[in-house]
Design goal:
The longest helix is centred in the middle third of the chain and has 34 residues. Among the domains are: about 180 residues, tricorn interacting facor f3 domain (Immunoglobulin-like, Sandwich), CATH 2.60.40; about 90 residues, Immunoglobulin-like (Sandwich), CATH 2.60.40; about 130 residues, Peptidase M1, alanyl aminopeptidase, C-terminal domain (Zincin-like fold, Alpha Horseshoe). The two termini are about 15 Å apart. It has an 8-stranded mixed beta sheet, with no helix packed on it. Strands 17-18-19-21-20 form a 5-stranded mixed beta sheet, covered by helices on one side. Strands 10-11-16-13 form a 4-stranded antiparallel beta sheet, with no helix packed on it. α11 packs parallel to α15. A hairpin with a 4-residue loop joins β25 and β26. It is an alpha+beta fold. It contains 26 helices and 31 strands. Bound molecules: (3S)-3,7-diaminoheptanoic acid and zinc ion.
Length: about 900
């Protein structure tokens, strides 16, 4: 496959002023007619005196029926069919192109372009799916005004597309015809079409300037009672964007559709967002707190794209983080404002530290703005999304809330209606604030996770505290040497009484140090004693900080740091140190013993009535095996597993009484509300329950059983079932699993959760039950949610069983990836990730992983998606 480079970007030769689409829907035989008003791009580079270049159109899996220009059929001599499109000879700088082609939505299992999901038609065009619908310049810098007519048989009463409906009538042959017109010019990737027998929930929103917007959520009839939370979230998001960014919605209607078969979480098509059912449908009986919160954040995310993505879009796909990094930052702040800020930050940083850091240290490492790709779908990554959001957050930290708002106002005003670059975003931030972010731009171009080595000294004679910061960044593929980053390092200094010291005469207790050199020192004067530094508060930059904290110092920070995030982080460091010692003891054949200070620290967290229960739950949770693995130079999976399981067991044993008290205190019957305070209590209660079940004591397992039987909401029910599945014997766990399925088998979202509980079970035999689950009538290899629940759950969220010593877990994954590649390349290329990191594993396990990856490569012809990931990982 061909590699595309950012440096080769050229403006399009032709622009499309208007796009008129006409669909006649049939499962295997959909007719698409398009009428494009085309003109030569005045901004295109052309050699002087050059004749008009050919018009290049993208097209994949299309059957061309006819092609005409200005009403005349184009003879075969004037165009060429290319492997992935058409090249058409052009005679005039302006013309109307009309194309008729046929497509087959029923057999489209890639879930890109137009496809069928449970009998309903829907589309997914980002990044390059529109070319599977019709021939088109399928690139985001070609923006056009779309009008879309859909003709469908009577069984499809709901026919939707972008913008406003301007026509609805029966055709002469009794079909339904509907036309939509989108007044905003947009790239093809924001096009959407939906047709089905759908029900709708309706509401309205009045914008700040007093315009009334109709809000509609469409879903199959059986899910109609699961839309309320998404609707509430949508209205909150609309209000929030007005208040925080001054951004109003711009059409008279905003529609959301839930679809069962979807590659990603959701898609921000103009005025017609399409959602994975799992990311929009919820009711208290069927969805967990985590799902309620995920829905709020994704509904917000897609809505926020209307400005950060749609009104101002990307010039090319290398700029993906322009809209994704910014929009993730926006949705994270939205969630933080709606819920607990510290807990949201902890969740996001945990994800970054495990999965994004691993990506940055692996074979597919790439900058936030990649400079090449074979398949752009492979670059919808944690680096582009989450690290990209951290980069925007750093700009926010550097400029302050007001400065950042000035920058975003200028950005939206300057580039409204345009397709722009990450550079344009940074430039707007600079221009609005009169600052220079030249060095900061390296965050966009250099891959890898920077490391800060911090050391300190105290000059008692002068009362000066000196922090020395050294930065480095490991080599990544294609980037051996890195230049220093501009890193905002938020610090506070704690005095012996645990209070923040004043850092200046104004009494400031926190400073953002501007780290920009390889080595730099920072002086704090006027201090009476050597303080304890609280470093990288709130995780002010996506870096690793090394500082030689002692156990006592970490315990002190855990108790006293005024920054809640760093309180949690001190606990994580402490646990990490203890787990490292356990791994070492295990490898060297010593008896394992858990540091008593860790136990004491956890006890006082558990008994501290002043802490938010959600924060307590986070603080009681040991770093995941994946996090531990990421932090190792070389991964010894067995030692990680033994150490972590031992520590969990020892904590559960030592704190049994306190855990039980806490559990009993929180175990009360309250009507379910997905509000932060209630979520926090359930989270702590179920964290306690999980620990209690680790002991495998019959009376404690009975607690889980009772909770399972009596739970009035899915959060408590699923948590109890998970504890049984992970810790109870089969005669207790199996009946629970069966009755759960019996009760919920009609509910797709709950069945997905049920699959996930089993595939992530830490008990022996999980691989075998995963194979059985794949034979279950509810499993479909063509449904990404089911694949993610069963195969993904096992490979990504079951460190213990996936890393079993015989390597069968890796072989299984390789087998499934090869099978999936034939159906859905995007999903196959994502699913293969766990075995691409083979180089980091020690001993035979690494070799077995390598062999599994090789077997994928040797299995035959791979899709471009999978080929890119596998070939880059075998190097
Ligand atoms: N913009 C979509 C991404 C869809 C890409 C699929 N290959 C989801 C989002 O970030 O909002
Ligand atoms: Zn997005």
């Amino acid at each position: 496959p061909r590699t595309v480079y950012l440096k080769d970007y050229r403006a399009p030769d032709y622009l499309v002023d208007s796009t008129r689409l006409h669909f006649e829907l049939q499962p295997q035989d959909t007719l698409v007619k398009s009428r494009l008003q085309i003109r030569r791009n005045p901004a295109a580079e052309s050699a002087p005196g050059e004749t008009l270049p050919p018009l290049l159109l993208d097209g994949v899996d299309l059957e061309l029926l006819s092609l005409s220009i200005d009403g005349e059929l184009v003879p075969a001599s004037r165009y060429r069919e290319l492997p992935e499109g058409l090249s058409i000879h052009v005679q005039n700088p302006e013309f109307v192109l009309e194309i008729h082609n046929r497509i087959n939505p029923r057999d489209n299992t890639s879930l890109e372009g137009l496809y069928l999901s449970n009998g309903m038609y829907c589309t997914q065009c980002e990044a390059e799916g529109f070319r599977k619908i019709t021939y088109y310049p399928d690139r985001p810098d070609v923006m056009s005004r779309f009008t879309t007519t859909i003709v469908a048989p009577r069984q499809y009463p709901v026919l939707l597309s972008n913008g406003n409906q301007i026509e609805r009538r029966a055709t002469e042959d009794g079909r339904l015809l509907v036309t939509w017109e989108d007044p905003f010019a947009k790239p093809a990737y924001l096009f959407a079409l939906v047709a089905g027998e759908l029900q709708t929930v309706e509401d309205s929103f009045t914008t700040a300037s007093g315009r009334e917007v109709k809000l509609q959520i469409f879903t199959e009839a059986k899910n109609i009672r699961k839309c309320d939370h998404a609707m509430r979230s949508l209205k909150k998001a609309m209000r929030w964007d007005e208040e925080v960014y001054g951004r109003e919605y711009d059409l008279d209607i905003f529609m959301v559709v839930a679809v069962d078969h979807f590659n990603m979480g959701a898609m921000e098509n103009k005025g017609l967002n399409i959602f994975n059912s799992a990311c929009v449908l919820a009711s208290p009986e069927t969805a967990t707190d985590a799902t309620f919160q995920r829905i709020e954040s994704i509904v917000g995310h897609e809505y926020f794209h209307n400005w950060s993505g749609n009104r101002v879009t990307c010039r090319d796909w290398f700029q993906l983080s322009l809209k994704e990094g910014f929009t993730v930052f926006r949705d994270a702040e939205f969630s933080a404002d709606m819920n607990s800020r510290a807990v949201k930050r902890i969740e996001d940083v945990s994800l970054l530290r495990t999965a994004q850091f691993a990506e940055d240290g692996g074979p597919m490492a790439h900058p936030v703005r990649p400079d090449s790709y074979m398949e752009i779908s492979n670059f919808y990554t944690l680096t582009v999304y989450e690290k990209g959001a951290e980069v925007v957050r750093m700009i926010h930290t550097l400029l302050g809330t007001e400065g950042f708002r000035k920058g975003s106002d200028l950005y939206f005003q300057r580039h409204d209606g345009c397709a722009v670059t990450c550079e344009d975003f940074v430039a707007a931030m600079e221009d609005a604030n009169g600052v220079d972010l030249t060095q900061f731009r390296r965050w966009y171009s250099q891959a890898g996770t920077p490391v800060l080595e911090v050391s300190d000294a105290f000059d008692a004679a002068h009362g000066t505290y000196i922090l020395t910061v050294r930065q480095s960044c490991p080599a990544t593929p294609g980037q051996n040497k890195k230049l220093p980053f501009h890193i905002p390092l938020a610090v506070g200094l704690l005095g012996a009484d645990g209070r923040d010291l004043s850092l200046d005469p104004q009494g400031t207790t926190q400073k953002v140090l501007q780290v920009s050199e390889t080595e730099q020192t920072f002086n704090f004067t006027g201090l009476k004693e050597k303080p304890l530094p609280s470093l990288l508060r709130g995780f002010s930059a996506p870096v690793k900080v090394r500082y030689g904290y002692s156990t006592e110092q970490l315990l002190f920070l855990m108790r006293n740091d005024s920054d809640e995030f760093n309180r949690w982080d001190a606990g994580q460091r402490l646990a990490f140190m203890a787990l490292e010692q356990l791994q070492k003891d295990y490898r060297e054949g010593r008896d394992l013993q858990l540091q008593p200070q860790l136990v004491d620290a956890y006890r006082s967290v558990l008994q501290n009535p002043e802490l938010d229960p959600a924060l307590v739950a986070e603080m009681l949770t040991l770093p995941s095996a994946q996090t531990l693995a990421e932090q190792c130079e070389r991964i010894d999976a067995e030692a990680i597993i033994v150490a972590r399981e031992f520590a969990r067991g020892a904590l559960a044993e030592a704190l049994k009484g306190e855990l039980l008290d806490c559990y009993r205190r929180l175990d009360c019957d309250k009507p379910y509300r997905p509000e932060a305070a209630d979520i926090a209590e359930r989270s702590l209660k179920n964290t306690c329950l999980a620990y209690l079940c680790v002991t495998e004591e019959p009376e404690l397992l009975t607690l889980a059983q009772a909770q399972f039987e009596n739970a009035a909401n899915m959060t408590d029910s699923a948590a109890a079932l998970a504890s049984l599945v992970n810790h109870a014997a089969d005669d207790m766990a199996q009946p629970a699993l069966e009755s759960f399925y019996e009760r919920w088998q009609q509910d797709t979202q709950v069945v997905e959760l049920w699959f996930g509980l089993q595939s992530t079970s830490a008990r022996r035999g999980t691989l075998e039950s995963v194979r059985e689950l794949m034979q279950h009538p509810a499993f479909e290899l063509t449904n990404p949610n089911k694949v993610r629940a069963v195969i993904g759950g096992f490979a990504n969220r079951n460190f213990i069983q996936f890393h079993r010593a015989d390597g069968r877990g890796f072989e299984f994954l390789a087998e499934q990836v090869v099978a999936l590649d034939k159906l859905n390349p995007q999903i196959a290329a994502r699913l293969v990730t766990p075995i691409t990191r083979w180089k980091k594993y020690t001993g035979e396990l690494g070799e077995k992983m390598h062999r599994a990856l090789q077997s994928v490569m040797e299995s035959g012809r791979l899709s471009r998606d999978l080929y890119e990931v596998v070939s880059k990982s075998l190097v």
